[in-house]
Amino acid sequence: MISGSWGRNILAWKDLKKEQKMFPLKDAEMGASTFFASALPHDVCGSNGLPLTPNSIKILGRFQILKTIFHPRLCQYVDITRGKHDINVLRMQLSNLLIIKAEKNEDIVLLNEDTSRLRERLVVAAEHCEKSLEDLLRDGKPVSCSRILCIAFEVLQGLQYMNKYGMVHRALSPHNILLDRKGHVKLAKFGLYHMTAHGVDVDFPIGYPSYLAPEVIAQGIVKPSDHTQCEKPLPSGPKSDVWSIGIILFELCVGRKLFQTLEIDQRLKQILTLGCVDDIVTVLAEEHGCLDVIKALPENVMSLLKKCLTFQPSKRPTPDELLCDSIFSEVSSFYEPFHKAASLFSSSLRCANLTLPEDISQLCKDEDCDYLAERSIEEVYHLWCLAGGDLEKELVNKEIIRSKPPICTLPNFLLEDGESFGQGRDRSSLLDDTTVTLSLYQLRNRLKDVGGEAFYPLLEDDQSNLPHSNSNNELSAAANLPLIIRERDTEYQLNRIILFDRLLKAYPYKKNQIWKEARVDIPPLLRGLTWAALLGVEGAIQARYDAVDKDTPIPTDRQIEVDIPRCHQYDELLSSPEGHAKFRRVLKAWVVSHPDLVYWQGLDSLCAPFLYLNFNSEALAYACMSAFIPKYLYNFFLKDNSHVIQEYLTVFSQMIAFHDPELSNHLNEIGFIPDLYAIPWFLTMFTHVFPLHKIFHLWDTLLLGNSSFPFCIGVAILQQLRDRLLANGFNECILLFSDLPGDRSRSKMTSGYSRRKFRLEMRRNFLTMRVVRHLEQAI
C-alpha cells in the first residue's frame, strides 16, 4: 500500500509533469524510420573554399528545432542519427574492382565516395502509434460525420501549431495521421519537409501524389543545379496541407481511396484538370461512383470539403482560418486550448496550474501503475539506448536496412576515367515510409526491480544515512564506481535523472541540494540545465537575449566568421550550418552586450560546450557563457589583457614550483615557461585542448570549484606528463604540447584509474592554494 505522504507526492508530481517540456510516454510507443540524404561530389568546394557540408549534416542541424515542438496532436521527435558504416564491408565490395582498375588512387576515390554514401543514411526516432486513418479506410466503410469533424478539427489543430513555427507538413496522408488508443489524432513525420530544406537535400519528392495540392504539382520537382549557389524551390505554404486534408476527409466520407486505378502521372494530371471544373467535390464523387454518399452528407461536412478542395490557393483557407469557422462551432467546445508550458528559466509562474486533489484513495489502490510511462519520451529513449537499444539494429532486424553481396554491386562495364555502366538502380536512395516500433521489453526488464518510490522521491525527507546522495544504499555504493560505468548504468541513470529533474524543477529553492548532488555526478541528459543552475542563471533569459542587437554589423563579425568553421568541427551538430548560425548569434550577443570587453580568439571554443548542451536554447547558452566568464576568466577579454594573463601565469608558475619543485626547475632551465603552452589552456578553460566529451566531465568538476580551481587542473595535466617532460628538452616539449590533443596522455587521463588519480591530484592541489596565496603576498 502506498503511504499517504508519498501518494500526495505522486499526485503533485503528475500534475507538475504537465508543465514539463516533453509529454509523458503514456500509451504511446516509439518508432524509427530511415531515409537517405542526397550525396554531394567530393571535388567541389563552397564559396568559402572549404569542402561542402554533407546534406546529412545539414538535415541533422535543422532537425534539432523539431525536438522542441510539443503538442497533443503532433508525434514528438526524439532523436536523429547518421548511419554507421563498416569499412571492412566496403573494402570487400570494392576489392573486385582492383582487377579492372589499374591505378591505386582511383580505388581510393571510389572507396571514399561509397563510404560517404553510406554515411548519408539518417535514422529518425519519434513518437509512434500503431493505428492510423489508413486502418479506417481499410475497413471500406464510410466514417461517421461526427467523427470526421473531430478528426478534421484535431488535424487542423496540429497544423495550426506547426504553422506558428513557420513549418508545413507537405506529406499528409492517411498513414501519417496516427490514432492513439483513445482515438485522438497525432500527425507523424510532420518535420520531414522542414529538415530536408523543402526537399532540396534528398533525392525523393516530399509528399504523396494523390494528396499533393495542385500548386505543388504545377511547380514540379526543383533540384539545385549548382552546389555553390543553390536554386531553392519555392516552399509550400499552409494552404497546401489544407488541400491534402480535403482529399483525406473525402476518402473517409466515402470509405475508399481516390485515384487508385491511375498511374502516378495520370493522378497528377487528373488533379491539375480539376481547375477546369466549378464543383470539385461533385466531380470527384462522380468519377469514383460515390455521388449518392456525398450528397447524403450534412451541410457542414460538405461545406468543409468544398473549402478544403478549393483549387485556387488564394481562395483556399489556412488551418487557422478553418479552425475559426462556424463549421466547428459544436466540435470546438469539446477541446481545451493548448498552452505551452513555461520553461525553467522564465519570468512566468511555472506552478500556476498546479492543483492537488483532496481524495487520493484511488491512487493509493493503483499498485500496478506503469511508472515508466509517466516519464517523458526523451527520458525513456535515453534509458532505452542505455539498455542496449540501437536504432539501426532495429531496422536491420526488420529488414528495412539490407546489405547486398559484394558481387552484386559490380558494374557490367567500366571506362578508364572511372565511369561505370550496367549497374541496377539503387532504390535505397528513395524514401522507405515504413516505421518500425521500438520494443521497450528489454528496458522494462532491466527496470522491473525498481520500486515506485524511485520514480517519485521525496526531497524534503531527512536522509542523514546518505551523506552524498538521495538515492538508496545500493545507488550510493554505485557512486564509487568509475564515472563511465555510472553513465552507462540504466538503473543508476534512471534514479539520477529523476532526482535531478525534480531538483531542477524546484530551482532556485533547491539550489544547495543541486550542488550537493552534482558533487557525486551529473546525468548527461540534464547536464545543460544543471550547469545553468550551478552558474546561478536566473530570470527571464530569453527576454534579455532577444533585447541584444545581433543583426547590426560590427567589426568583430569577420573574425567570428573565420573562427567558427575551425571550432570543434569534428562534432556533427556544431559543424552543421544551423550550428554555425547559432554560434554566430551567441558570440555576437556576448560581444555586443559586453562593450568593455573584446572578442579574443578562443572565445568560440569557450562557447562550444554551452551551445552543444543548449543547442535549442541560444538564450540559455548565452546566459551560461555570460555567467561563466566573470567567474573563471575575469578580465581575460579586456582589450589589453596582457597584465591579467601574466599575473595568472605567474601564480600558475608558483603553484608548479610549490607542488613539484623538480619539474618546475627543469622547465625553467630549458626555458619552457607557461607562456608557451598554458595561455590556450586558461583562455579557453581547456576547451581548445580537449574534445567536447572530455570537457563535459572536466567542467562537471570545474563548476563546483572557485575561480582558482583551473590552476589545479593545469598542474594535474603537467603531473600526467611529468615523466616525459623531465626526460626531454625544449624542442621535444614543444612538440609534445603541440601534439597534446592526439596524445595518449589524453585517453590515459580519462581512463577509470587515471581519472580518479586526476581528481585526487586536483583536490590535493586545491588544498595548497592558501599556501600559494601566502607566497604571492610575500613576493
From TrEMBL:
<protein>
    <recommendedName>
        <fullName>TBC domain-containing protein kinase-like protein</fullName>
    </recommendedName>
</protein>
<dbReference type="InterPro" id="IPR011009">
    <property type="entry name" value="Kinase-like_dom_sf"/>
</dbReference>
<keyword id="KW-0206">Cytoskeleton</keyword>
<dbReference type="InterPro" id="IPR000719">
    <property type="entry name" value="Prot_kinase_dom"/>
</dbReference>
<comment type="similarity">
    <text>Belongs to the protein kinase superfamily.</text>
</comment>
<dbReference type="GO" id="GO:0005524">
    <property type="term" value="F:ATP binding"/>
</dbReference>
<dbReference type="GO" id="GO:0030496">
    <property type="term" value="C:midbody"/>
</dbReference>
<dbReference type="GO" id="GO:0004672">
    <property type="term" value="F:protein kinase activity"/>
</dbReference>
<dbReference type="GO" id="GO:0005634">
    <property type="term" value="C:nucleus"/>
</dbReference>
<feature type="domain" description="Rab-GAP TBC">
    <location>
        <begin position="521"/>
        <end position="706"/>
    </location>
</feature>
<dbReference type="Pfam" id="PF00069">
    <property type="entry name" value="Pkinase"/>
</dbReference>
<dbReference type="InterPro" id="IPR000195">
    <property type="entry name" value="Rab-GAP-TBC_dom"/>
</dbReference>
<dbReference type="Pfam" id="PF00566">
    <property type="entry name" value="RabGAP-TBC"/>
</dbReference>
<dbReference type="InterPro" id="IPR035969">
    <property type="entry name" value="Rab-GAP_TBC_sf"/>
</dbReference>
<feature type="domain" description="Protein kinase">
    <location>
        <begin position="1"/>
        <end position="328"/>
    </location>
</feature>
<keyword id="KW-0967">Endosome</keyword>
<comment type="function">
    <text>Component of the FERRY complex (Five-subunit Endosomal Rab5 and RNA/ribosome intermediary). The FERRY complex directly interacts with mRNAs and RAB5A, and functions as a RAB5A effector involved in the localization and the distribution of specific mRNAs most likely by mediating their endosomal transport. The complex recruits mRNAs and ribosomes to early endosomes through direct mRNA-interaction. Also involved in the modulation of mTOR signaling and expression of mTOR complex components. Involved in the control of actin-cytoskeleton organization.</text>
</comment>
<dbReference type="GO" id="GO:0005819">
    <property type="term" value="C:spindle"/>
</dbReference>
<dbReference type="GO" id="GO:0005769">
    <property type="term" value="C:early endosome"/>
</dbReference>
<keyword id="KW-0963">Cytoplasm</keyword>
